[in-house]
Amino acid sequence: MKLTTFSVAGVMALAFVSSAQAETVLTVATAGSQNMADYVTDFLAPKFHETHPDVTIRVIGTGPGDAGSNAIVERLEAQKGANAASDIDVAVVHQKAVGGMVSSDLLEKYTAKADTAKLVSSDAAKNALGVNVEGYVLPMFQSQTAFAYNPDLVANPPKSYDELVGWAKENPKAFGYNGIRNGMSGVSFVAGWMYAFTGEESQMVNGPFKESLVGDAKWNGAMAGLKSFNENVTFTPGNAGTLDMLNRGEIAVGPVWVDMFYSWQADGRLNPNVKLLLPKPGMPGQPMYYVVPAKSEHQDLAVEFIELATSPEIQAKGIVEKFNWYPGIDAKYLEGHLDQAAWDKLFTDIKPEELSERAKAFPIAPYFNAMLTSYEKNVE
Amino acid sequence: MNSSRFAGFLLVLPALTVIGVMFIYPLSYSFVDAFIVPAKDGGAAQFSLQNFATALSLYGDDILFTIVIVGISACLIALGSILIGGYLTLGENRFFVRVLAALYRWPLFIPFIVAAQCMRTFLAKNGLMNGVLVEAGILTPLQTIGFLDWRGIIITFVWKQLPFVTLLVAGAMAALDRSTIDAGRDVGAGRLRILFQIIVPQIMPTLIVALVLSIVIMMSVLSVPVMISGHSPTMITVEMAFRVNSYNDYGTANALGVISYCITGAIAWVYLRRGVKQGGKPV
Fold this sequence. Notes:
Helix content of chain A: 40-55%
CATH superfamily of the largest domain in chain B: MetI-like
Pfam families (chain B): BPD_transp_1
Distance between the termini of chain A: 81 Å
Order of helices and strands of chain A: HEHEHEHEEEHEHHHEHEHEEHHEHHEH
CATH topology of the largest domain in chain A: D-Maltodextrin-Binding Protein, domain 2
Oligomer: heterodimer
Domain ABC transmembrane type-1 (chain B): 63-271
Shape of chain A: globular
CATH superfamily of the largest domain in chain A: Periplasmic binding protein-like II
Strand content of chain A: 15-25%
Helix content of chain B: over 70%
Structural class of chain A: alpha/beta
CATH topology of the largest domain in chain B: MetI-like fold
Largest interface: A-B, 24 and 28 residues
Largest sheet of chain B: 2 strands, antiparallel
Number of domains of chain A: 2
CATH architecture of the largest domain in chain A: 3-Layer(aba) Sandwich
Structural class of chain B: mainly alpha
Number of domains of chain B: 2
Protein name (chain B): ABC transporter permease
Radius of gyration of chain A: 23 Å
CATH class of the largest domain in chain B: Mainly Alpha
Membrane topology (chain B): Multi-pass membrane protein
Mean pLDDT of chain B: 88
Keywords (chain B): Cell membrane, Membrane, Transmembrane, Transmembrane helix, Transport
Low-confidence stretches of chain B: none
Mean pLDDT of chain A: 88
Number of helices of chain A: 15
CATH class of the largest domain in chain A: Alpha Beta
Order of helices and strands of chain B: HEEHHHHHHHHHH
Distance between the termini of chain B: 31 Å
C-alpha cells in the first residue's frame, strides 16, 4: 500500500517536472478574421508540436482588417517604449502595417536564418506598399479580390471596369460593394477603379509619392465617375455582407476575397453556382506576412516555426488545400505535395495567366490614404 | 468617528482607483489628444483645433445623422414604452397582460452585436421578414425593399432598448397611487386619456432618466451601424473606428469622441436642469 502511494507520488513528481520543462511557450499573434486564428491553432500548432513536443503554442487572434495588425503594432510599440521583452514571438500582419513596423525597428531581420526563404520568389517579400522590407518578412499566402457573380441572374457579367460602368446603368442596384469603411474588398474595388480610370497604376503601386497626382484632373475625374457610378449600386454591409447579398439574390455582381469565396462555397454557405471573374485591367490582392518581433525572447524557435509554416508541404496542404489561399512561396515548389484537383479548383474561374496579368498590388501607403480621403470628400 | 470615516474611505478606495485608472485617466488622455497635432519633421507636438476641423468637414453629416437617428429612436422608444407600460397597467384582459409582461423583456438579454447580426438577415431585401411576407401573399417579390440602411439601425435600436425603458416605466406606473386612475375612470375618461393625461405626467421623471440612459448607450454602439449600414452617412462610432483602423489617426477619432461627449453632455444637462427646477432633486 505504502509502496503504491510512494510510486504514485513519484510518477506525479516526474510528470510535474516534465511538464515544468514543457513550459516553453511560443506566442503567435495573428491579425485577420477567425479563419487565420483557426489556421494556426488547428493546423500549424499541432504540426509544430510533433517536432517540438516541449513547446506550447499560444495563439492570439487580434481581429480582422487593419485594426488587427494595428493592435499588434501598438503592443510592440508599447513594449519597445517600456524597454520590455516582447510577449509575441511570431506575428502575422497585413501588408499595410508591415512597412511602418520595419521603419520603426520593431522587427527582427530573420529571413537569412530561414531555410525556406529561398523558396519565395514574389516581389511582395521585398516590397510592401513601397517600403523595402527585404529580410524582415516571409509571405504566408497571397490573397486576391475579384468579382463574384451569379450566372442565374446575369449570363454575361461585365468583364472590365469599363463594361461595369455601362452595365450598372442598365442594371441599377445589381452591383453591390461595401464602400471603404467596412472591409477591404470594397477598398480593393475602389483601388481597382482608380487604376482603371486614372491610368496611373504603376505610379500608385511603385511610387514615389507625388502630391501632384492627388487631386489632378485624372484623379478627380475618376472620383467623379465613381460618385455617379455609386448612384446605381447597392451598398453591402461588409465583406461577408456582399457574399450574403449575392447568396440571397439581392445583388448579381460584387467584389469579394477569393479565399473567402472558396471557403464559403466549400462549407456550403454559398450558392454553388456563383462564379468568379477578375475584371480588366485588374484588382488588388495582398499577402499576409510572417514577422518576428525584434524583442522576442524565442527568436530561434520563432524562425523554426516560420520555416515549418513556409515549407512546401504545409503551404500545399494548409494554405492551398485547406484554406484556399494562393501560396506564399513560389508555386513550382508545391509540385508533388499537392493534389492536382485542389490546385485546379483554385484556378477554375480565374486562370493562372489572368491572375498573373490582372492581380495587382494595393497603392503605396500615401496614395492609399489619399485615395480613402478623396473618396470620403468627393464621392460620399 | 474619525476611524470609521477612514474605514469608509478604505472601502470606497478600490472602486475609486479602478474608476480613476480605467476610466478617468484614459478619458483625460483622449480628451487632451483631441486638441493636439503630432510632431512634424522633428518639431514638438502642439495645441491645435485641426482635428476638430477635419472631423467637422469630413463627418459633419455623420454627426447630424447620429443625432437624428438617436433622436428618432428615442421618440419611438418613449412612445413604445408608454404604450406597453400603459397596457400592463390598464389592460383588462389578464391573459394578454401576462403574455406581454413575459415577452417584452426578452431583447434585454441579447447583446447588440447578436441583435445586429440577426437584423442583418431579418431585414434584408430577400431576408426572413420579406420572405415571410411574400410567402403569406402580402407582398410580391418585386415589391419588397431592404431595410439595411438608416431604417435598419433605428429598428434595431428600438427593438433592443425598448424593453429597458419599458422595464423602468412600467415599474413606475405600477407604483403609482391607483386612486388617481380610478378617479379618472369614475368621471368617464377613456383609457388613452387616462394614460396620457394622468399616468404619463406622473412617471415623466422616470421616463426621462430611462431615455437619457438609452441615448447614451445608443450613442456608443459600434456594432449595429457597422453591421447594418457602414456606408456614409453613418454614425459617429463607425467613423471613429475608421479613423483609427484605416489612418491610425487617433487625433480625429478623439475629436469625434469629444463631440460625442458634448452631445450626451448636453442631454444630461437638460435632464439635470429639469431636476433642479423640480426642487433640486433629479430622480
